[in-house]
Amino acid sequence: MDLFVYNTLAKKVEKFVPFKYPVGMYTCGPTVYDFAHIGNFRTYIVEDLIKRTLILNGYKVVHVMNITDVGHLTDDQDQGEDKVELSAQKEKKSAWEIAEFYTNAFLDDLKKLNILMPDYMPKATEHIKEMIDLIKILEKKGYTYRTSDGIYFDTSKLKDYGKLVGKKIELIPGLRVEIGEKKNPTDFALWKFSPKEKKRQMEWDSPWGVGFPGWHIECSAMSMKYLGEQFDIHCGGIDHIPVHHTNEIAQSEAATEKIPFVFYWIHVNFLVLKNQKKMAKSEGNVILVKDLQERGFSPLDFRYLVLSCHYQSFLEFSFEALESSKNSLKRLREIVSGFEKKEVVNDFWKNKILEKINDNFNFPEALSNVWTMLRSDLSQEEKIGTLLYFDQIFGLNLDEEIYKKIDELPEEIRNLIQEREILRKNKNFVEADKIREKIKSLGYEIIDTISGPKVRKSTN
Ligand code: AMP
Ligand code: ZN
After folding, report:
1. Which of 55, 62, 275, 393 has the smallest number of CB atoms closer than 10 Å to its CB?
2. pTM for this model (two decimals)
3. For residue 315, what are the domain limits?
4. Which ligand is nearest to the CA of 215?
C-alpha cells in the first residue's frame, strides 16, 4: 500500500518514494539543559509513530536523533547564552554534568513513553571535528564571513534561501542596529568565539579561534555523517521551520551542492494549553512526564492522547482530556486481557485501518476505525489480532499480559531467543527457524514485532 505524507518542502501531500535503502530518518533531539516537557514529547511520540509506520510498511529505517549538549543559545539571533552553560551556573554543576544528567532523564522518559530507541544518538560535543570540517568547506566556497563574535553564513549568497518557509524570507541588508555586525538579518553563526569576559566550560580550538559550534551546523554535520549527504526524512516541531531547518538546508546544500539535502520534511504542530498558549519553558507552563505520573497517569495514557490528535493540529492538553485517554486505554487493555486463544489479523480491517495511517499519518481516524472494528461482530480472535497488529505502531503495550517479559522467562528460553536474534541479524534465517522450532518444542511461541521478539506460552 502506498504511503502519503505532507512534505513541508513541497507544501503538499506527496507519495513517499524512498531515495535510499534503508530509509534515513533524522529527528532533532533535545537540548539537554533541563527536563524535556510533554510538548517536546508530543513531537517525539509522533516521530516514533512515523518511524513505526514506515517499518510496518516494510521499510528498513535508520533513525538518528542528536543530543544537543552545546551551542543552543537562549535566543535565535545567535546572541544570548548557551543554554547548557547557563543551566550549569544555576545548578552549580559542571556543564558536562548537566548534559549527562538531562540526557539520562530524557532516555528514561523515552522508555516510559515506549518510544523505540534511535539507531544513533550522536552528541554534539563528540562531533566537533565534523562540524569544523563542514565550516571549512563552506569557507572555501565563499559562504562565510567573520565578525567580532564568530564565523557567519552569508544567506544572501543562496538564491533559494528560505524555501522551506515558502515565501522568500526578506533579506534586508545593513540594519546595523538590529543585526549587529551581520550582513543580513537571516545570516547565522556557524562558529561562535568564546567570550573574552567569561571562561566557558565547553570550548574547542578551531582554525578561526577558540569557541563552540552554532546549533544549526550540529544537525547538518551529524545527520550527514550517519545518513549521507542526502537522505529521506527529517522531522521536528513546526517552530524549527523558519530558522533551524531553513539554516540546516542552506548550509548543507551550499556545502555538498546536492539538492535536496532532504526529500521529505515532516513537522509536528504544538502541544498547547487551554488558552492556546504553546507549552514552553520560556512561558513557565511546562508539565513533565513525572508530573503526569504523580497525578496518577501512566505515560502511555499520554501516548494515547497524542495518537488521538492529528499531528498537524494543535494538541490542546488538559487533564480532562488525559483522563478520557486513560479510560480509553483502560478499555483497550480490558478487551485484550484474559485472552488465551490464538489471535488472527483480519484483512479487511487491516487494510482499512492502514489506509488511514498511510494517509499522512491520520491516527485519529485509524483509532476511530479500531473502535468501530471492536464494536463489530468480528470474532474475538480477529478483533484482538487486528488490534495487536496495529499496536505495533500505536505502542500502547496492549499485549503486556499475553506476552511474557523476556527477563522473566526461564534462562534456557532467554538464551535461545538471544541466539536467534544474532542469527537473524546475520540473515541466517534457516538456523534462526530451527531455534524457533526448538523454543516451540519447549512450550513457547515466538512472535517477531517492530519492537523486537515477543514470547508467549504455546496456545496449542
Ligand atoms: P527543543 O529542545 O526546544 O529543540 O525542542 C525539542 C523538540 O520539541 C523540537 O522538535 C521542538 O520543535 C519540539 N517542541 C518544542 N515545544 C513544543 C510544543 N509545545 N509542542 C510540540 N513540540 C514542541
Ligand atoms: Zn536539529
Report:
1. 275
2. 0.94
3. 281-401
4. 2
